[in-house]
Amino acid sequence: MTDSTQLDLSYGVIPLQKKDGEWHVFLIQMLAGYWSFPKGHPDKGETDIQAAKRELFEETGLSISQILFPQPLEEHYEFQRSGWRIRKSVYYFVAEVTGQVALQPTEIQNGKWVLLSEAIQHVTFPEGKALCRQIIQLLSQR
């Protein structure tokens, strides 16, 4: 690792609801235009699950009713920002959620519930598409 590399850690939730016997996932569209899952950086002193719950609520107005798998799913990728190479790690808790959607307008431009089986077509980045496949597989084994 060189001096121009920064590590970036975030926590999030992949919000699910079962409707008419089928799993739906809530996706958010960031102001930058891409579709993904709610996530963000932990505040000082927060645990991983506290940060994930807070970010979910701040960005969507939704709350966790049940975490479906004890271990979070991991997403890792790299990108460039302001001359720095950023190594990003995101840990997502897969959870059933409840509440009324209330999007955070300073970060989120849109949000929508989609069938989990169709989410791959809506998520922008390959890492998110891989998470969708992983969740479908995990849920089929329950």
From TrEMBL:
Keywords: Hydrolase, Nucleotide-binding. Residues 6-136 form the Nudix hydrolase domain. Pfam families: NUDIX. PROSITE patterns: NUDIX, NUDIX_BOX. SUPFAM superfamilies: Nudix. The keyword Ribonucleoprotein does not apply. One of its GO terms (molecular function) is bis(5'-nucleosyl)-tetraphosphatase (asymmetrical) activity. One of its GO terms (biological process) is ATP biosynthetic process. Belongs to the Nudix hydrolase family. This is Bis(5'-nucleosyl)-tetraphosphatase [asymmetrical]. It comes from Parachlamydia acanthamoebae (strain UV7).
